[in-house]
Amino acid sequence: MNSFPDFLDMYSMPFIKMEGIGNDYIYFDFTDRSFESKNINTNVIPIICNRRYGIGSDGIVIIANNKEQDNIKMYMWNSDGSYSKICGNALRCVAYYWYKKKNIKEFYIESGAFLHKATIIEDKGASGVVKIQMGYPIFEKEEIPFYGNKKSQSLYIFYEPEIFPYVGYVVSMGNPHCVFFVDDPDSIEIEVVGSKIENHPLFPERTNVEFIKINPDKTIYQRTWERGSGETLACGSGACASHIVGVLEKALPKKNIIHLKGGDLIIEWEEQIWMTGNATLIYSGNLIKDLGEKLFINS
């Protein structure tokens, strides 16, 4: 029988589990060591993210240093192992973690898409409220990317009635989104429809899909199918995309509340997009040594 110290030797690679309005990720802090994204074994990510056989999450996030720019950098992968440039809910969690570690209320985080200013609005202990600069919306189809040519007055559209009999409005927030106005988002067979749209050939890098309803008070209710993760309780960049489409196509106010299954976000469109919402530290732990060594190759 193994002794207690031998048993502890099985564990390595500490992690933090955090969530932003129900969008949960596993975070690894590499700010005290070097990190290169090529050292991630993406085949191991679905095992770790599995909610029955692993820790369970919508993906994993690496918090690293960017010494050249004197800021921190966020790398993220979806639960299927695919890379993603940006996630608004993850950015808020990274910001709150860094605030707790360094006790600074304003700083910058670099994602694969933009440089984001982060401001801590409220500290509630294990959770807080964070405002994040989300960058500029992207409308050019080559940059989204999107292969379609149909266009509304403001945006490129996706309309494939044999898949879904509604018009989808296409925009990027550093990752592609296709937003549909529907009567009842909760009635959508999202596993079927969301998956077909995500993987449609018109989206060469796949797409996130938002099904939204405008409430009588002009706020938005959103249901999300995330590229590489399936349905999630929330999507921050998706809330930004829904807000942009709502402003351009339905003349909604430039500051609005987006209601998602996991909670609410405040989105503001000035010149850039700003997002305010919660971030919560759930727990910390350690990967089994063998699993950690498989995930982080030569790290």
Summarize the structure.
By secondary structure, the chain is an alpha+beta fold. It has six helices and 17 strands.
Query: What strand line-up does the widest sheet have?
Result: 1-2-3-4-6-7-8-17
Low-confidence stretches: 1-5
Report the principal-axis shape: globular
State the fourth-level CATH superfamily of the largest domain: Diaminopimelate Epimerase, Chain A, domain 1
pLDDT average, as an integer? Answer: 93
CATH topology of the largest domain: Diaminopimelate Epimerase, Chain A, domain 1
- In CATH, the architecture of the largest domain is Roll
DSSP helix fraction:
10-25%
The share of residues in extended strands comes to 35-45%
Task: Estimate nothing, just give the exact number of structural domains.
Answer: 2
> Which secondary-structure class do the elements indicate?
alpha+beta
Tally of separate helices? 6
Radius of gyration: 19 Å
CATH class placement of the largest domain: Alpha Beta
Describe this structure in words.
There is one protein chain. The chain has six helices and 17 strands. The protein is an alpha+beta fold. The chain has two domains: 4-135 and 279-295, Diaminopimelate Epimerase, Chain A, domain 1, CATH 3.10.310.10; 156-270, Roll (Diaminopimelate Epimerase, Chain A, domain 1). 42% of the residues are buried.
